[in-house]
């Protein structure tokens, strides 16, 4: 028998036909098992097997992923191809020796010009072998003179058929319908079921399979006996060797006798356990974050839409909390990506402990998380949830011996008040988050209607700041530092200024936090350091220059090298440079920061503690930090000389600094009375409008050459 005799001519499709069209084709034509994909010359370029295709389309989001994509993405691009005039037995023997597994996916039949002529499957080959055997058996009866030749041919066919069945890597078994007992099991079946054929043959379905699986198989058998045809079970659970749970993909076909009655049932099956496990892992990777095992952005959006639909049906509220980790980038940059990954995992665990059983926590990407809170009857529930998360994330994290402190900023959008769709609700929560970050972080805010305009203003400021840095629009101004005892100016504090084309002078309190958020603080800080050193090196008198250092700069690798380069390029002596830091640089308890400060001080650079007493002031910092100076914040100076508490505080700080061998600078000095009180208290330096405002050219305005002359400059 030739291949053309058993092939089925099924209409083909081209490579650009969509997955949805092929799906509809299989739905409409249940008997079609294979569809060939051909080029413009009707030459096969691929093959689509019904079961494999429908399994992929039936998976979660399968239709969404492949419905509108070309079938070329789903087809077997290297199918078995055989010429129509090839003998079926020759083809089967060749394939069984070289590509036995490929028979499971079927084959394409072509004519002498390699054009499409039909498709065929494994069952077709088995039927052909069976028909060959039957024909030769008939010839024995009809052609007595050829009895011996027919017997030999029949024996060859029998041996061939048994060899095919025995060596095929798919389970094949045969069951006798009369008594329901298995009469044959091949080698692959022994391996799949974990049982020898001696123990399997002679058993019934109920003897080997248990419970619901056995009932499913018996029901399929009854249908086959009555109606014939083919039965298929995509995913049949069974216990291998009585203990290990496995999954079986099974096809069964009714074998009829000469009267048309079903005499045997032929089963073909394969173990798909590992394939399903791989598919499940792929499915999970598509919807879950591998680092934190939280739902990812794709699943979050799907769940958000469902939550809103449910809230609409139940007439409830739903809230979305968008969470951004404060100072995470700092940890990532200073301690490395491994520490950053560890931190993300630990943050996720803490936030899991904050949410309710009906809430969903997801990682949207990077250091951004989100929570869907459902069943909200009172916004106090949402406030409490946000407060729990902020509090949980604020506690210190142990990252391989390093103590890290970060924070969480949360923006909240509420359905139905703020938005009617998931996308809009997420946007509103993002806007609220933006507001929190612009106001100092470490807090939560609900969306408010006027936030849109503020966010737009913030985004405009961000774009303008990037452009200003690129164009070199930033400027360095210098405010004089007055030595109270010597009654003369002995140094200047460098202050960054931004003259905006339309907004005028933008306050550093407004643009510095933006620069830190955008990651611009290092290039801006490096520029300020270089510019300050360059300017100070040109002053005639050897006045010192003080430069404010952002906590973000201090955590960045290479900061000491930046300072060293600035001094080397400008030629400024290290003892004329003073770096002003705040207590917040040590909040993360990073030993590298302390090491950097000691290294700078060993070079001769002076270290000053700015805004002492206004933030996280601790006397422990005065012991740990290699400090030369303490700066007294203007909130205390402002109370001099009339407020007794301010006088007491300033006096205590001055005495403490003196005992520790440090100098002091009082900020915000605006009156002669304040200056006189500072002199009586023993304060070293004064800074403020009474002494002089920040100026772009201090040498020209204040007369650097005359610094030795006692002088106070107003305005």
Number of helices: 28
CATH architecture of the largest domain: 2-Layer Sandwich
Largest sheet: 8 strands, mixed, barrel
Structural class designation: alpha/beta
- Anisotropy-based shape: elongated
The CATH class of the largest domain is identified as Alpha Beta
Work out the radius of gyration.
41 Å
- Report the mean per-residue pLDDT as an integer: 85
For the termini, the CA-CA separation is: 110 Å
β-sheet strand percentage: 15-25%
Strand order of the largest sheet: 19-20-22-23-24-25-26-27
CATH fold description of the largest domain: Alpha-Beta Plaits
The counted number of beta strands is: 27
Would you identify the regions where 5 or more consecutive residues have pLDDT less than 50? 143-147, 701-715
Helicity range: 40-55%
- In CATH terms, the superfamily of the largest domain is Reverse transcriptase/Diguanylate cyclase domain
For the record, the count of structural domains works out to 5
Question: What report would you give on this structure?
Answer:
By secondary structure, the protein is an alpha/beta fold. It folds into 5 domains: 3-130, CBS-domain, CATH 3.10.580.10; 170-277, PAS domain (Beta-Lactamase, 2-Layer Sandwich), CATH 3.30.450; 291-449, Alpha-Beta Plaits (2-Layer Sandwich); 458-608, TIM Barrel (Alpha-Beta Barrel), CATH 3.20.20.450; 628-692. It is 45% helix and 23% strand. It is built from 28 helices and 27 strands.
